[in-house]
Amino acid sequence: MAVRIDGKKMAADIKEELKGEVAALKEKGITCCLAVIQVGDDPASSVYVGNKKKACGYIGIESRSYELPETATEEELLALIERLNLDDQVNAVLCQLPLPAHIDEKRVISAISPEKDVDGFHPQNVGALFTGQPGFVSCTPAGIIQLLKRSGIAISGKNCVVVGRSNIVGKPMALLMLRENATVTICHSHTRNLREICAQADILIVAVGKPRFIDASYIKEGATVIDVGIHRDENRLCGDVKFEEAEPLASFITPVPGGVGPMTIAMLMYNCVEAAKKSGKKE
Ligand code: NDP
């Protein structure tokens, strides 16, 4: 029976560590400030934004909210980002996704200053990850690396399969595992023999976005299974993995909820503190 990786506890530990760091920075006259932009009032986005602001409050990071109406133009949004890029009091900026269809998401992501891009989505930060240079890393994959390391799971030399190739999860996840010296296979909707490939993984990371897609037949005995998916199924949360089938087979597994999810916000907070340290903002 697998050990359940307790993401909630690890995220709480990270937030506690960051709280101490933020207090120490304040003593040196350096404050952390995150600007959060939301366009429209999509309920799921509002929940995510609320959780981010709550985490900021707990750690001692100042958060500023910028709520634009659904009808805001791309130019208005870009002008706000430009203002925040130039504001010395703000060292981190994020724009909650998805954006309304009339706004070009890529243009918006590229407009955020790479030094303030705590989501790690700017092409400069993505390129830095690709070439092994310092930069902000997308929060969910960065959180998964922390989950693995804090659970004492060795990565170097392991056979890692990542299912999904999105810019936010799958691709940066594969690059991070490569950086940790895993042998990495990336699978997607055109992959042939997905089941056979997954069944060879020592570490299987699933970000396919389909509820309970991965069953026992995809999992090698003793594998570590990381479930990134999050879905509401008959009013209960579930992941991309059939947990009850995977748990008896795996050696380590993340539950949903309480696995990967809480780590995403913890790593966002980590990135905000890093941004403040780099900018060295004085009060
Ligand atoms: P996307 O929908 O952007 O990507 C899904 C990926 O899965 C695509 O690359 C797609 O391939 C691939 N895929 C789809 N169907 C199949 C299939 N039948 N076989 C193999 N591969 C397939 O999702 P995200 O990466 O944004 O998110 C994945 C999941 O993680 C979602 O459930 C999301 O809600 C969750 N999530 C959770 C977070 C957290 O904090 N816990 C944060 C971010 C996401 P192709 O590219 O060919 O279309």
Gross morphology is globular
**Helix-strand pattern, N to C?**
EHEHEHEHHHEHEHEEEEHEH
How far the N terminus sits from the C terminus, by CA atoms, comes to 52 Å
Helix/strand/pairing class, anyone? alpha/beta
Largest sheet, strands/sense/barrel: 6 strands, parallel
CATH architecture of the largest domain: 3-Layer(aba) Sandwich
Number of domains: 2
Helix content: 40-55%
- Percent strand equals 15-25%
The named CATH superfamily of the largest domain: NAD(P)-binding Rossmann-like Domain
What does the model show?
With 283 residues, the protein is of the alpha/beta class. The protein has 2 domains: 29-113, Leucine Dehydrogenase, chain A, domain 1 (Rossmann fold, 3-Layer(aba) Sandwich), CATH 3.40.50.10860; 139-261, NAD(P)-binding Rossmann-like Domain (Rossmann fold, 3-Layer(aba) Sandwich). It is built from 10 helices and 11 strands. A 6-stranded parallel β-sheet has the order 1-11-8-7-5-6. Helix 6 (139-150) crosses helix 10 (260-279). It is globular. It starts with a strand and ends with a helix. NADPH dihydro-nicotinamide-adenine-dinucleotide phosphate binds next to helix 10.
